Amino acid sequence: MLRIKIFITSTLIISGLITKGQMVLTLKDAMSTALENSPDIKQSRLTMEQNREYLNAQLAMLKSHFSLNVTPIRYSNSETYDEYYSQWYTSENTLSNAGLVISQPIKWTDGTLSLRNDFEYKSTSTETFDNFTDPLNPTKTTNTYEGFNNNLYLSYNQPLFTYNKTKMNLERQQLSLENATLSYSIQMLSIEQQVTQAFYAIYQKQMAVQIAEEEFENQKISFEIIKSKVEAGLSAQEELLQGELNYATSQSNLENAKVDLENSKDQFKRLIGISLYEEVEIETDIQYTPVIVDLEKAIENGLSQRLEISQRKIDLNNAQFDLIETSATNEFRGDVDLSVGIMGNNEDFANVYEKPTRSPQVGITFSIPVFDWGERKARIRAAELAIESRELDLKTLEDNIVINIRQVFRNLQNLNSQIKIAEQNEKNAQLTYDINLERYKNGDLTSIDLERYQNQLSQKKMNLANALINYKLELLNMKIQSLWDFENGRSFVPQELQNNIRSSDTN
Question: Most CB atoms closer than 10 Å: which of 125, 197, 392, 433?
Answer without folding.
Answer: 433
